[in-house]
Amino acid sequence: MPHNGTGSYVDFCTGFYLMLDHRWEDAIVFLEKILQENPDAERIHNHLASCYFQVDKKEEAIRHIEKIAQLKPDDFSIHYTLGNIYASEGNEMGAISEYERANSSEMDGIDKGFVSDMLHRLASSYMKHGEIENAANIYHKILDLKLTDEPVKIHYNLGQIYVDAKRVKEAIEEFVKAKKYRPHAEPVCFYLALCYEELKKYDKAIAELKSFIEYDPDAWLMRINLSNIYERVKQYENAEFERNKSLVILESRVSGESKDIREYITLSQLLQRKGKEKKAIETLEAAIANVIDGDDKALGEVRFMLANIYYEMNDHNNVIDELEKVLEMDPDNHQANNFLGYFFIEQGVQLDRAVGLIKKALSLNPENAAYLDSLGWAYYKLAKKDDEMMEQALQKLIEASNYAQDPEIMGHLGDVYFSLGFWEKAKSQWENAIDLWKESEVEAPPHLKYKTVRELKAKRSIQNKLQKIRNLKMVESSKEKVETGERVVRNHVH
């Protein structure tokens, strides 16, 4: 700006000294006047942005920074700054756009800390928006430019990206690289074993988990995962050994008033599996007392688990009580809506409310086979002699069966077919359900197979219904023989 006594120069000097005196509003008046004659004055836009930020007029401040970005399209610093502003304002797409411009700018002479921060932010934004390939490219750039002091984190992030993209072999490569920097990082070893398991390289998965357990014998999560793989390869004694070890470790942690909610939940599941429902309940109640403090999501999860255990114990009042508490905290909890609705249908109480609860669960998760099954079963229970509602029940149950091959859904379908008089279809559905249960039982010996009360009840009910059909067929067959015999005798008499 020329020092020739022009109005613009006077306005600049006045505005600048008002800024130094922190008289931001007055400074804005003089600086805005300059832009009327010099709309592309970068320095004035910069000062105005500072003033507007000081008086908490963010939109105006951002408008001036955006103008600078237009004037300097290849300037790393301005695009990096604008990207950070957009990110802080929740404008994710704007942030990505500016970080991309910063990434394509000339970065010679720029502090490596700023470049690294920008690239990490860009990669993170790509991840949030599911742009896996772009995120991977940015992480590779961070590694190539040696912009990180912790390459293990980059390789770990890359591994997770490839896992999400189901590119398991590439994920393994990244986790192996991460392991070289930190051989005993639990998340790295965990995912590496998970990838080997996905590729059905069970020996490698087992070796990975065992290696970590040798380093840290109290790593209960690794032991749980090891037990699951042992079950998959039918090494049932080893699976039970690892579960028992986990149980002992977790009991010790919880008795020491652990602050990790996962430890209470997992211990409760292990106790329930062993048929120790009362101890499982005590463990979850301890979690509520010792760990959960204002975390409604965690509290809802624990209460939902309690409802399941009470269901297994046929403690109906507590099932309702726990589920009502979950819905009081979170009316949109679709699992609790469906569970409570199905439970009411089973008990034959509050049927109208039950249908409403199940419909709400479906509105939140419309392709859930279990919820469709619940609604179909509710219609069946309400149908009685209403053929139209029976047809609706059949429609929902067929829809459910399209989403999942589940023995309970097949059992319900069989009931509807039987009520409609299609005995052969009913028999076919019930037999298919029994066959599915038998297939699952082959996978583990009976003494290790954990069966829920609901599963046992459903299976027993279907077996009884199949026997009923067999009996009815025997009666029909006997009638036919009697009628045939009568006709023969009469013919002889005549």
Strand content: under 5%
Helix and strand composition category: mainly alpha
CATH structural architecture of the domain at 166-256: Alpha Horseshoe
Mean pLDDT: 87
Largest sheet: none
Q: How many helical elements?
A: 25
Backbone CA Rg = 34 Å
Q: What is the chain-wise order of helices and strands? A: HHHHHHHHHHHHHHHHHHHHHHHHH
What is the CATH first-level class name of the domain at 166-256? Mainly Alpha
What's the N-to-C terminus distance?
Answer: 131 Å
Contiguous runs where pLDDT drops below 50 for at least 5 residues: 1-5, 446-450, 484-494
Q: Kindly state the percentage of residues in helix.
A: over 70%
Descriptive notes:
This protein has 494 residues and is mostly helical. Among the domains are: 166-256, Serine Threonine Protein Phosphatase 5, Tetratricopeptide repeat (Alpha Horseshoe), CATH 1.25.40.10; 406-442 and 453-482, no CATH class. 79% of the residues lie in helices and 0% in strands. The chain is built from 25 helices and no strands. Helix 6 (92-103) packs across helix 7 and helix 23 runs antiparallel to helix 24. Keywords: Repeat, TPR repeat. TPR repeats lie at residues 42-75, 116-149, 152-185, 186-219, 300-333. It holds the Pfam family TPR_8.
